[in-house]
Design goal:
The chain has about 170 residues and is mainly beta. It is built from two helices and seven strands.
Length: about 170
Amino acid sequence: MMSTLVLVAALGGGLAACGPGGDKAGGTSGGSASPAKPADNADCGGKPPVLPTGHTMIEIKLERDAATGFEAQKAQPTCTPNDWIYHGEGDSQHYRLASGAKIQLAENDAPKHLKPVSKDDFDKHVDGCLRDDHNTVKAPFGCYGNVYEITQNAKGDIQTIEEIWHP
């Protein structure tokens, strides 16, 4: 009985949900100062993140250009030893940017440091990341798995797109 309580206390002390917007589960940072070791099943220590209504995560797989759009898979959170990371699953779909779409890329210093860019700069960035071309993608930007959070208008075109940063 005592070993069960110690195990529960050890596991429950520093758990927090990971994902967009940080800790949405209200977890604390209490507990031991040493880093938590992930369980054998790479338990992130909480439930998968839940996106706000109307928001979708996608992983871009093929860039055409900003005018004609790109191919992407809907992305689902996957628990890794470090965090919840989104990965594309299933068949790719065609996406287009709406006229006047708000496009933001992640700066490479921290989560949610986003910088607005033009459609042309977005096109170059995605193409460079898909090709793993570090001569094209320059600071303050980086490549983070080609995962973006989007909202769409009534026609299905992307109204807002934000690159998702992760270490």
